[in-house]
Automatic annotation (TrEMBL):
The protein's name in its UniProt record: Glutamine amidotransferase type-2 domain-containing protein
Keyword Coiled coil found: no
Family annotation (Gene3D superfamilies): Glutamine Phosphoribosylpyrophosphate, subunit 1, domain 1, HUPs
Keyword Oxidoreductase: no
A GO term, aspect molecular function: asparagine synthase (glutamine-hydrolyzing) activity
Residue spans of biased composition, Polar residues class: 433-443
Stretch list, region Disordered: 303-336, 420-455
Source species: Rhizopus oryzae (Mucormycosis agent)
Domain Glutamine amidotransferase type-2, first and last residues per copy: 64-156
InterPro entries for this protein: Asn_synthase, Asn_synthetase_domain, GATase_2_dom, Ntn_hydrolases_N, Rossmann-like_a/b/a_fold
Swiss-Prot/TrEMBL keywords: Amino-acid biosynthesis, Asparagine biosynthesis, Glutamine amidotransferase
Amino acid sequence: MCGILFSLSNNGSILNLNDWNHLKDLNTKRGPDSQLLKQLNVKDSTLQFFSTVLHLRGPDVVPQPIEDSENILCWNGEIFGGLQVEHGQNDTQALMSYLRESSSQDEILSIFSRIEGPYAFVFWQASTKKLWFGRDCLGRRSLLTCHKQGSLMLSSVGLKSEGWKELEANGIYCIDFSEEVLQEGLYKIHLFPWSYSEEPLLPFPRLNTTIPDHLKAIETPQVEPLIDEDSEQTVNDFISVLSQSVKSRVADIPHLSQKNDDARVAILFSGGIDCTFLAALADHYLPKSEPIDLLNVAFENPRSEMAKNRPNKKKNKQNEKPEPSVLPQATYNTPDRVTGRASLEELRRIAPDRSWNFVEINVPYVEALEYRQHIIDLMFPLDTVMDMNMARKFVNYFVVPVATLALVGTAIRSQARPAKAHSHFMKPDHQTRQSWRQANGGLSVQDVGRSGGGV
């Protein structure tokens, strides 16, 4: 997770410095390892490139924006395929080498269309005086845009103010500075939309909607369902592709501590079939001596607890014993916690040589309310209930300094190192730590869930 901040303004426009400085601070939290600003003057316009880096791969931090032959690149993404990237090579440097050798518009577009992986970028091509920016076709990396007072701004994280919106992931955008300036003082933005190959629709035969009367029902003994060779091959192909996807995310994660037996990978784990399957695949590509952390979040729900503890008012019938009142259950014994523990046992059964750390992360109701507005600001412009639920879980995962996080469950690799995870989202204060202790039997934030370690 890195940060991108870009501004384009002409001599007659006014760039809001308060907004700019605020955005710099927000993007710095996304990339605590390196922050760098580059400024470029083109005709009557000023271009500012600000990038922050969270170092995840390779031996050394590669500061951004990266500059080569007067080209400037801000990159927030990962290249899993499509372009040749050597083992241990930095994605940003590899991409810049491809872009440096590209001279035409078609070559630039070809490079970004071939990348397999999530990304957002801003790229200045000096030889053609063109500015390129955009996101992958699925929009898996954040990039917001704002047109204000004759200026254009792009940022990985926006401000909850008028004008900011998500940059559509419908293609690659380009500004050609050899063209004439528009009346508003800005240049025309060209869109090169993604093109998709359309698979032919296969005809579907007509089906009987009712069972014919002349058919007789025949009782058959129960047998194990069989699948034909084509279906079996499809299943095997799916597992193979998904396995390679997991391998590319977990196999080369560096050790961030001198202890090689510490967990390098943690999986956001609700116990569902998706995260359980991914955990089983991750087991194939990590040394058996390394544990894998399964992070399971549960939120305190006062209304649910009140309903559980409410006396049963059902009227008694004759000759029937009164039903006992619903007994209080564990505050954090939520459905995700129950399924998580059940799936943990299944993983221990199929991979007994692995140490599976089931990390129980319990979030008190007071704490969830305290950070609600902060979470809303972080996930802007997303605003659905599902967005809120997912964001709350992500933030609370980062509060607990457990292990390097490889979020394979969402196809996102985001390794949050314990020492810097707090600065990305929130810093637990004394009161928060006390609430954690009270909710977890005196355990500190660092201790939560560790007592339930692996096999």
